[in-house]
Amino acid sequence: SSRVVQIQSQMSERAVELLGLPEDRPCLLLDVGCGSGLSGDYISDEGHYWIGMDISPAMLDVAVEREVEGDLLLADVGHGIPFRPGMFDGCISISAVQWLCNADKKSHSPPKRLYRFFSTLYTALARGSRAVLQLYPENSEQLELITAQAMRAGFTGGMVVDYPNSAKAKKFFLCLFVGASGTLPKGLGTECADGEEIHQAKFTNERTRFRNAKGKSVKKSRDWILEKKERRRRQGKEVRADTKYTGRKRRPHF
């Protein structure tokens, strides 16, 4: 229906806006779950190029019939993104990623499929670029699962929620950064009546200066020791209390 098309194109527009693309040059974007290519039409109108992936041959047939400008690939993104490293300047996805939470086959493990998707997507994106994935989560556990796997794959960022107070217009956009962590964009309609902003979930770790490239704390640093002690406590082992001396270097003995 035309209403669905209208909502779809609004979300595509918002997703591309959240990518924060450079205005002076055309970019190459990946559209995950591109369907019949409605998002692609908007990307093309904006002067960018795109490649679309979808699991449904029927939807891609419609895209071919509509003579969309992007290249189309029939694939299950749960098997990974099959493109060379750093190829894309950004990725958008409209209403698709939540399907990776379903185990449609016995062999499907949602966390593994999500991790495979996010880790290969991370590789396929150029450093400093973004992925903006609009999704319809069934519940907070699903949101947590999706976000956790994205962070495990190396992304920073978090959820941008547009119109959080409206049952109808509320939209979730997982806004992910590759490499340098940007500032999470503000959701639309998040200003309350008294001008105060609703705070959004942020998944960036504030203490990044103690972390190495893989996002782990530098070995033998205070953070690393505290994390290790905390893990051992959770395992029910006896661990000495943390003090100001934890992780301090000893003076050399002469």
UniProtKB/TrEMBL annotation:
Keyword Metal-binding: no
Gene Ontology CC, one term: nucleolus
Short name of any one Pfam family annotated for the protein: WBS_methylT
Record InterPro entries: Bud23-like, Bud23_C, Methyltransf_11, SAM-dependent_MTases_sf
Positions of region (Disordered): 221-254
Chief location of this protein within or outside the cell: cytoplasm
GO BP, one annotated term: rRNA (guanine-N7)-methylation
A molecular function GO annotation: rRNA (guanine) methyltransferase activity
Domain 18S rRNA (guanine(1575)-N(7))-methyltransferase Bud23 C-terminal: 176-251
Cross-referenced CDD domains: AdoMet_MTases
Catalyses which reaction(s): a guanosine in 18S rRNA + S-adenosyl-L-methionine = an N(7)-methylguanosine in 18S rRNA + S-adenosyl-L-homocysteine
Regions of compositional bias (Basic and acidic residues) in chain numbering: 236-245
UniProt keywords, alphabetically: Cytoplasm, Methyltransferase, Nucleus, S-adenosyl-L-methionine, Transferase
Annotated compartments: Cytoplasm; Nucleus
Function according to Swiss-Prot or TrEMBL: S-adenosyl-L-methionine-dependent methyltransferase that specifically methylates the N(7) position of a guanine in 18S rRNA. Requires the methyltransferase adapter protein TRM112 for full rRNA methyltransferase activity. Involved in the pre-rRNA processing steps leading to small-subunit rRNA production independently of its RNA-modifying catalytic activity. Important for biogenesis end export of the 40S ribosomal subunit independent on its methyltransferase activity. Locus-specific steroid receptor coactivator.
Subunit description: Heterodimer with TRMT112; this heterodimerization is necessary for the metabolic stability and activity of the catalytic subunit BUD23. Interacts with GRIP1.
Family note: Belongs to the class I-like SAM-binding methyltransferase superfamily. BUD23/WBSCR22 family.
Name of this chain's protein: 18S rRNA (guanine-N(7))-methyltransferase
